[in-house]
Amino acid sequence: RREGRVRRRRRRGGRGTRRRAPCGEMSFIFFDRPLPLTDPRSATVVAWSKVEDVPLLAVAEGESVRIFREEGEELTDYRQTGRCACTALTWHPRGRILAAGWDDGTITFEAPGSGTKRDDREVHQRARIRCIAFNPMGTRMVTCDSNGLVAVWKTDHKGMMKQDCNFRKQGSHDKVIFRTMSPTGQTNLDNPPFFFGGDSGVIYLADDMGFCSDKNKIGSPVFCLEYLHEKDTVVVITDKALLVMFSLDQEGKVVNERSMKLSCGPDPRLLQGVWAGAGLLAMTSNESIVRMFNLMDDENYLIALQGVDDANTLAGDKVTSIDFNPRKQVLAVGTKEGRIVQWRCSTMQGTPKSEENWQVLPIVKAADCAIDRVRWGPGESLIHCRTERSQVVLTEAQLNTAVYPPYLAVQTSPTQVLLHHLERSAHTTVKEKFSARSMSLGGNFLLLWNSKQAAVHEIEGHSLNVTECSAFNRENSPIAAAVLMKFEDEVQIAIASGARIEIANVKGDFIRNIQFSHEVEGFPISLSTSGSGTSLKLAASTTKSMLRMWEMSRKKEEKPIGGCRKFEGNTGESLGDIRSVRVNADGTRVSLLVDQLMQQSGATRGVIKVPDTRIFVYDVEQDKFLKYKLGTSRVPMSHMWDTKDPRLLACEVVAQLLAYNAQDAEEEYEAAPATSLEALRKADEEPPHSVKTLFVAGSERVLLQDTLTCADISASDPDGTQKALRMPVALVVPHVYFARQQLMGGTSTSTSIPGPLDPPGQDSAIVVRQVLADFAGLENVNADTTSALLNFSYHLACGNTDEAYKSVKDVKSKSVWESMSKMCVKTGRLDVAQKCLGQMNHARAASALRACREPEPEAKLAAIAVHLDMFPDAVQLLEKCSRWDILNLYYQARGDWDKALEIAKTKDRIHLKPTHFAYAQHLEAVENVQEALSHFELSGTYRTESPRLLCALGMTDELDSYIERSDDEQLHRWYAQYLESKANLDGAAREYKKAGDWLSLCRVACFNRDLDHAQKICEDSQDPAACYHLARHLEAEGRVKEAIHFFQMAGRISHSLRLAQENNFDGDLMSLALSADPASMAQAAKYYETRGQHSKAVVLYQKAGWQKRALELCFSARLFDALRKVAEDLSADSDPEILAKCAQFFMEHQQHDKAVHLLSMSHQYERAVELCYEHNVHITEDMAERMTPEKNSMDAAARSEILARIAQLCKKQGTFQLACKKFTQAGDKLKAMKCLLQSGDTEKIIFFAGTARQPEIYVLAGNYLQSLQWHNEPDIMKNIIQFYSKAKAHDKLSTFYDACAQVEIDEYRDYDKAIGALQESLKYLVKSIGAGADNDNRVHSLQSRIDLVAKFAGVRKLAKSNPDEMVQVCGEMAEMPGIDPTVRIGDIFAQLVEHYHETQNFQEAYSCVERMRQKGIPLTPYIDHAQLVSIYGAVGQPVPAQEGATGGGAPPPGGGADDDDGVGEEIEEDN
């Protein structure tokens, strides 16, 4: 049987693309097992069994159904043969029962191996079976055929299916899903209803009770039918790439329906979809991308093949098939070029939100043509691939290795092992007839085994020939694990099978058993041995995570070491499930790799195993578990102990996002002193695939010793592209051994190791070794030195400096001490490094260390590293402590100027210019003038250094050209001075002009006595310094006018004034003085005063701020106009004496308003107010504010008196609001309110009354508001009531309610509301009278009015119920004396007229109208004109003219008979 190994590719991100780090499962490879089919293209129907213990694959080939194991071996006894082609296959979800549908409508049920078989030919007669589906629990099965028949089957007592009911619907149906969520939100897995659909485009809902109804008509054939359990939603994809989603309510009606057009390839028929998480639909259609539709959040994103690796080998490839493994959380796609690309979901909670939640796994090259179907098998390691040429089962397996010095074995394919001799570096290939699951080495024997058989090979040491010495079968007792045990003169085999470990000889003959309790301890699944001869230890882990150890003997019974140890913490909590165990060299410690169970969220809601990021070590003597965390999302894949030293452990570590990252507060590992510069890296800078060597230090902790990358640098392209993988296989100090997987096929990046698929004679896998960093350069020392170095490294890692030094103090080799000093640099042990330097007699390095005064230890270590020629290490140390300045100097000292400048530009910018300067000096030394000039410019020293350099070399022409090209003004100024010193005044003038040095240019012109040119320079440049220089020169020449002009241009006004005064230039003096500073103005003013020009002197004094002197001069010279201008500029900050004098002046000249203004500013408030009274000065708001004294500036009573007088004057002048404000400031709010009432500003009156909070003010405000049209303004009525209530003015409130009642009667004839108002009036009248209210006539009168109004209101209600009584009462009331205006007599007659008119008694109505006319009551307010026309027309009389009222009419609105509410109250005048 042909078996091969599928090549797996290591992947890295491509250039220019965003990459996700590949999951580094480097120790796992896929083995391919082709299925021996006659015609692979005819086998289109394939189904994996659901049971994981013995996975089976059913394949329909032509008229046969064939069953295969996971190894690709056919179970010929279980083959089914029919009379036609098999069209559908499905396994029972809970048992090993295969349901098959055939082209003639036959349904067969068979349980392979049990002999149970049943078939049915009646239900689907002569119709092709298109679909078979089981519900989740396997209690129901649904079958569909091409004629539209849908049958429901039940499970019988034998586990077989029997037909229950069926439905026939139009069309052919081939899609069935079960509705596992009930409308009430409860999960139903036992007997859920189901949806089905097909070519008709109709989705039906049915159950096993015979119910079936169509729920949604899509309109196109159904291409994909899925069910979203979390939302109880049906998802449909049609053949036109239309996505439709809908739900059903509790009544079965379609709700929440929505649809969208899917983006897909050119042919929608190639569309494939699969659930990839809770509500996450993964779709592909022969494109280079996978489209992810998050139906839970209505979002989508893409996962692309582009840029998966550096070589971009998937460019142009297309996705042709897709499937998802919910247990492993891996999405796998097959491609057009025969690859399988996988992504692992990195989140356990919720739905993956973006492509960042998918980590790429290594690529698998599975075929040479397009893969049109991929299907995950049960568990996590099986994939079925179908192409047009073959069908293959891919099995993922770990790379098995074994070491027993001097031999090393590496499995390279299911049937092949590479055997390597460690000492001679020779190797050979061992081939086996069966697929080996694992292997073991012991002495010169090699054991290969799988679950059913084992073979032992003997190795001839010198020639490395391998011969098979025995082979035995284990069909009846499958092997779970097996190891060889090498005693002194015999080799035995320990075989874990069932609940025991069998001890057998190399021929497989039984010797004895080690029994396990399967209920308590479980079954042994992992074995490991250590030692040889008489001291041999055996360790075993079980399915229940128990750990047992024995001391083995060839003849005697094994001796247990301790008891059965459960894998749990100190408090009894489980630490995980043991995956693998390894025993160290002396059997005192056992390392364990562990998986953790994690709960999935989403649709699967299962529990999966994920690797723990920690490695555990069991200390046998202390009976204690130690642990070491390898890093976030860094998981151990394999582990191995050193073959001799029991302390040293190696662990292969890969980056994997889906990992158990323990957050244990009691972590018992330390980051440890870094034992290599690799360990100095941050966690995110570590290689994705590496080997960590660890020291198990006593029984307390595990310490990091070294980190080696698995990337094979020697097998990389010059650009760094990796071309080979290395997988660690053994640790033999001082080396770590790797199995290197070379690349094959030219540009192909698929990794390969020898196997049947490789070309004959091609040896593509070799074993390579790499020395540990602590032993670099000391690989060939003797065993004692190697042991001493290992002890040195161990104690150094533990931080025990003294013990580390003692372990190597007897070593005499200078090279060993040099190596140890380098090791100390790498480990950061400065103290030990000093001792090593002393042993080396390296005086220069020791001196440099003593001279180093830097505070950072890394900087001191870098100084040592430089003298030990460890340049890369020195750089890394300085980078670690961020001493970029020292690193810059280090690169300068080495002459590596490019790196020095790069560091200065990016990290050490404070020294960027000094670095350029140092480099320029270096270039000057090597006479590279142009580059030196360039870097002098970058350093900022070119103004002095560049001319110095060129002058020193005598390069005057180059100097002239250099400066000519430069735009730097300082450089041109220096050159101008240089030329001036050489008496080249023309050249100097030219350079001064380029430099913009106008002073020097003017100076040169004056020196040449070219004053016209000097004046032109000053006028063009307007440079103050040049103008000043020229002005002094002109003054010396006696050209005063011109000197004054240029002094003025220079801004030296004092000099201009001096010259003008000395030369009596009075015309120019005034304009110069006005632009001068105050001191110069005052000086010019004195000059004018002495000359008798007082008006000019006053102006200058005023502008200079000398107001007092200006006023004195105005008074003395009687300059009244000037005085007014001075007074206008006075402010409150002016001298009070000046203000008073000005005010007196204005009063004398009858300018009282200006006098008041000045008196206010001088704080003479009483005088200012008195002046306003005397001369009736109109007070503005601004003037009133100026006359208002500041608070606390004077006595409060005096201030209030001033404010009151201001208010009285404002009131007298008619500015009532200003008077109100001043009365308020004076504290007299009542007078303020009276003033405000006179202003008539209703809004301010209401606001002021609300803030004053005084009863008198409330009453005044209420009285004022009653004078308005309050009956039309609800807000005014509300304020009236509120103000009277707050003032407790009950009599006013009673009067107001009485007026309200009268308005209701007069305006609206609403006697009901009038009753309410009168009752309120009575209530407040009683309150106002007090205790004697019962005997008060006003109360009695008001009560009688209320009775009359109430009586009439009741009469109006009798019009319908008792009209006769109503007529009688109205007649009585009409004759009552004095009833009007309590009840208007017109309303009484109007009520009668209305009644008679309604009853068609027009004669009585006419009589009532005539009585009204006789009493002088106007008709219009009471009787409608249409009624009058009707009445008079009925009695044959003309309608009378409407005369005015002479009595009994409606009074004016708001008025009443008792209008004494004080609204018109006279406001008291204050004199």
Structure description:
This protein is an alpha+beta fold. It is 35% helix and 27% strand. The protein has 42 helices and 63 strands. The strands form 14 sheets. Strands 1, 2, 27, 28, 29, 30, 31, 32, 33 and 34 form a ten-stranded antiparallel beta sheet that branches. Strands 47, 48, 49, 50 and 51 form a five-stranded antiparallel beta sheet that branches. Helix 26 runs antiparallel to helix 27, helix 31 runs antiparallel to helix 32 and helix 35 (1274-1287) packs antiparallel against helix 36.
Comma- or semicolon-separated keywords:
1471 residues, alpha+beta, 10-stranded antiparallel β-sheet, 5-stranded antiparallel β-sheet, 42 helices, 63 strands, flat, disordered N terminus, disordered C terminus
Summarize the structure.
The chain is of the alpha+beta class and about 1450 residues long.
Helix percentage range: 25-40%
Morphology: flat
Structural class: alpha+beta
How many beta-strand runs?
Answer: 63
Q: Main beta sheet, described?
A: 10 strands, antiparallel
What's the mean pLDDT score?
79
The end-to-end span amounts to 132 Å
Give the low-pLDDT segments: 1-26, 664-684, 719-723, 742-764, 1443-1471
Number of helices: 42
Portion of residues in beta strands equals: 25-35%
Backbone CA Rg: 56 Å
List the helices and strands and how they pair.
Elements lengths: L3 E6 L18 E7 L10 E4 L7 E6 L2 E6 L10 E2 L4 E6 L6 E5 L4 E5 L4 E5 L8 E6 L5 E6 L3 E7 L5 E8 L4 E6 L15 E5 L3 E5 L5 E6 L4 E7 L4 E6 L3 E7 L5 E8 L10 E4 L4 E5 L4 E6 L4 E6 L14 E7 L4 E6 L3 E7 L12 E3 L2 E3 L5 E6 L5 E6 L3 E8 L2 E4 L2 E7 L2 E6 L4 E6 L6 E5 L2 E5 L3 E8 L4 E9 L7 E6 L4 E7 L2 E6 L4 E6 L8 E9 L2 E8 L3 E7 L6 E2 L4 E2 L10 E7 L5 E11 L7 E5 L2 E6 L4 E6 L4 E8 L6 E8 L33 E9 L3 E9 L15 E8 L2 E7 L23 E7 L11 H16 L2 H8 L5 H14 L2 H11 L2 H9 L5 H11 L3 H10 L3 H11 L2 H10 L5 H14 L3 H11 L2 H11 L3 H10 L3 H13 L3 H11 L2 H10 L3 H11 ...
Antiparallel strand pairs: 1-2, 1-31, 2-34, 3-4, 4-5, 5-6, 7-8, 8-9, 9-10, 11-12, 12-13, 13-14, 15-16, 16-17, 17-18, 19-20, 20-21, 21-22, 23-24, 24-25, 25-26, 27-28, 28-29, 29-30, 29-31, 32-33, 33-34, 35-36, 36-37, 37-38, 39-40, 40-41, 41-42, 43-44, 44-45, 45-46, 47-48, 48-49, 49-50, 49-51, ...
